[in-house]
Design brief:
The chain is of the alpha/beta class and 231 residues long. 36% of the residues lie in helices and 9% in strands. It contains nine helices and five strands, in the order βαβαβαβαααααβα. Strand 3 (90-95), helix 3 (102-114) and strand 4 (119-125) form a beta-alpha-beta unit. The protein is globular. The two termini are 20 Å apart.
């Protein structure tokens, strides 16, 4: 699986934590295709070279999918293992923010998924911080498209927390509390997923993704992409 993330730090850090929780019996290679983090993965890129808006991610994802499909044919990989639909799937994780092209990316991905092709998306409105917040509380109101408003509600963010510090994802911010010797943590994946589905249920298929406020389906990326069902 190849992943293209809009965020240069938060989403890659989240992925690092969660992919390490997958059952070791599941053979899956996970690559963050546009990972440009520095300082051992603790800081974002000093000079970003990858374009990260939704339409840019789509172009990069389609190019990677074509590349992997050509490689499979050239090297004669044959049919994928039993129970696996295809050798390679490419995911795009992106936010609403004020980006152009959100609905076009969703349209292309939806059609490709229906046709059995390997492109998938995980989308959050206003931003990925909504998914982080749902690990701690229910929330159904609009943020008015302002990501900073979602960030402020994170329980570990205070008025003294810098924007860079708020972007950092730590295991105790998402993992379920009650583990061995631990009293910190969150409500965990299952509750975050249930809260997200409750939010998303208010929208029909006819609703444009750009108008779904709030919205997040990152849980689908976790289950279908990373093959993790609990944490």
């Amino acid at each position: 699986m190849w992943i293209f993330t809009e965020g240069a730090l938060t989403e890659p850090q989240y992925i690092d934590i969660v992919r390490g929780l997958r059952d070791p019996g599941i053979r899956l290679a996970v690559h963050i295709a546009n990972d440009e983090r520095t300082n051992g993965g603790t800081k974002g890129p000093q000079r970003p070279t990858h374009a990260r808006k939704p339409l840019d991610l789509l172009d990069q994802a389609l190019a990677k999918l074509r590349e992997e499909n050509r490689k499979a044919r050239r090297e004669k990989w044959g049919s994928p293992p039993k129970g696996v639909d295809r050798w390679t799937t490419v995911w795009c994780l992106f936010d609403r923010d004020q980006h152009e092209g959100v609905d076009e990316v969703a349209r292309v991905a939806k059609k490709m998924e229906k046709d059995g092709e390997g492109l998938r998306i995980a989308y959050s409105h206003p931003c990925f911080e909504l998914w982080r917040l749902l690990h701690h509380q229910d929330f159904t109101s609009s943020f008015g498209g302002v990501c900073d408003e979602a960030t402020k509600k994170l329980p570990f963010v205070t008025p003294r927390t810098s924007k860079e510090e708020a972007k950092v994802v730590l295991p105790e911010q998402i993992l379920k509390r009650g583990g061995p010797g631990r009293t910190d943590g969150s409500d965990g994946f299952a509750k975050a997923k249930a809260r997200a589905k409750k939010i998303n249920a208010q929208y029909g298929e006819h609703h444009l993704y750009s108008k779904r406020d709030p919205y997040t389906d990152v849980w689908r990326f976790v289950e279908e992409g990373l093959q993790v069902t609990d944490y």
